[in-house]
Write a structure and sequence with these properties.
- This protein is an alpha+beta fold.
- 30% of the residues lie in helices and 30% in strands.
- The chain is built from four helices and six strands; from the N terminus they run ααβββαβαββ.
- The radius of gyration is 15 Å and the shape is globular.
Length: 149
């Protein structure tokens, strides 16, 4: 992900996560922290040879002691095609190089996304009441551990 991708990412934020969306300033700050952040986008594959459009995005915050899946989004028109899974798998591969523990928060009322993460080995370890400040929604905290030899 680069700053040039932000208009498309912010449009998807509104589509997928309103009212609890990230701002352009938040993303610019994240992109500037290259030592501990890893952000990427998924592009569609146009048949006419032009550059693809952003159809998904994901971000990781990684420290030696733990990593956090910060965000994943796929435009509704492209959901169900495995794009989110590929984005998550890419983030998890990066996280595994940096830390043995991976955490994330997901809306408590979003059972489909919780199941999505569960298929990648995440389990619920707690809840954060009113975690999302604009909607007031609670978050489920999920964790995945990689066993190191």
């Amino acid at each position: 992900m680069t700053a040039a991708d932000l208009p498309a990412v912010l449009a998807m934020e509104e589509e997928l996560f309103a009212p609890d969306t990230w701002t352009a300033a938040m993303y610019r700050d994240e992109l500037a922290r290259t030592d501990t952040r890893h952000y990427l986008v998924a592009l569609d594959d146009p048949a006419d040879g032009r550059t693809g459009s952003v159809i998904g995005y994901a971000g990781l915050i990684a420290y030696p002691e733990e990593a956090h899946i910060a965000t994943i989004g796929v435009t509704r028109a492209h959901q169900g095609q495995g794009i989110g899974a590929r984005l998550l798998d890419t983030l998890l591969a990066e996280a595994d190089r940096r830390s043995s523990v991976v955490l994330l928060e997901v809306r408590a009322d979003d059972e489909a996304t919780q199941a999505f993460y569960g298929r990648r080995g995440f389990v619920e370890i707690g809840r954060r009441p009113r975690y999302y400040p604009l909607s007031g929604a609670d978050a489920v905290v999920m964790q995945r551990e990689v066993l190191r030899p």
